[in-house]
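Q: what sequence does this backbone want?
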């Protein structure tokens, strides 16, 4: 193990010491990405771009640069890299998808929606864009547009797990809890290790007042991903419904520690007080 660590360290030394060509910088970036050395990868990619600013592969490098900057938590730089790449290749679905995902991550939902819509103008059969745009529309309360996107996705691919998840989410928002539970259950049969499915079904069970079944799904979701704050919020909601306020507060505290919005957690307690 020590030898491997030494090799990785050597690969990620400043490249100016041993190589200077465009493709050597690209190889250097690849080595650093494999080692999860995001800053080293960023340096190598920027160096490649400076070495041959007119190279036809630079659009791809800009996409990779944006992604390593995103992993490094440098969101503004990542957005700039994706946008610069799109100036070179405005119809790059890869760049649009990457930028849309980043916009969603930083809660710039309207801009993410625009990018997913642009992808669908380029390719109206893009399943991921249909799913992601449908979720955004659902979050906006636009159930008509959301349903159209999910139905389009399922028409293109009747076996699509995302299409079924989206449709189950739509049914849940519309208050059709038994129907949503049935769709989630169908998808879980083929994806038993997908945590988001148990989270979705648990929420539907909670809305339907089936707390014992919700507890089982929450327990399974925690087993699959113990660091998902939403799972703790759902468990807190179930406890609040059963007047277990102190235990619910502990779950909400844990959810906040894992990244859940503190004000949103406080609102849940306030709403419970007002009942």
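A:
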């Amino acid at each position: 193990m020590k030898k491997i660590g030494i090799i990785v360290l050597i690969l990620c030394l400043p490249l100016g010491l041993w190589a200077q060509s465009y493709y050597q910088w690209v190889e250097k970036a690849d080595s650093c990405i494999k080692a999860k050395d995001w800053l080293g990868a960023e340096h190598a990619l920027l160096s490649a771009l400076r070495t041959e600013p007119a190279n036809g592969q630079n659009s791809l490098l800009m996409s990779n640069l944006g992604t390593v900057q995103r992993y490094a938590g440098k969101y503004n730089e990542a957005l700039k890299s994706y946008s610069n790449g799109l100036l070179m290749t405005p119809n790059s679905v890869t760049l649009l998808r990457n930028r849309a995902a980043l916009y969603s991550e930083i809660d710039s939902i309207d801009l993410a929606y625009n990018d997913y819509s642009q992808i669908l103008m380029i390719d109206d059969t893009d399943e991921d864009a249909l799913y992601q745009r449908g979720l955004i529309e659902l979050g906006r309360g636009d159930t008509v547009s959301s349903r159209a996107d999910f139905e389009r996705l399922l028409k293109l691919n009747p076996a699509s797990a995302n299409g079924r998840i989206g449709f189950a989410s739509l049914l849940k928002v519309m208050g059709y809890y038994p129907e949503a539970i049935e769709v989630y259950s169908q998808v879980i049969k083929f994806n038993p290790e997908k945590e988001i499915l148990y989270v979705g079904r648990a929420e539907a069970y909670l809305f339907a007042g089936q707390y014992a079944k919700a507890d089982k799904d929450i327990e399974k979701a925690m087993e699959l991903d113990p660091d998902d704050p939403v799972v703790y919020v759902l468990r807190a909601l179930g406890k609040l419904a059963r007047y277990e306020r102190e235990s619910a507060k502990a779950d909400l505290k844990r959810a906040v520690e894992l990244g859940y919005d503190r004000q949103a957690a406080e609102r849940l307690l306030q709403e419970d007080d007002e009942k």
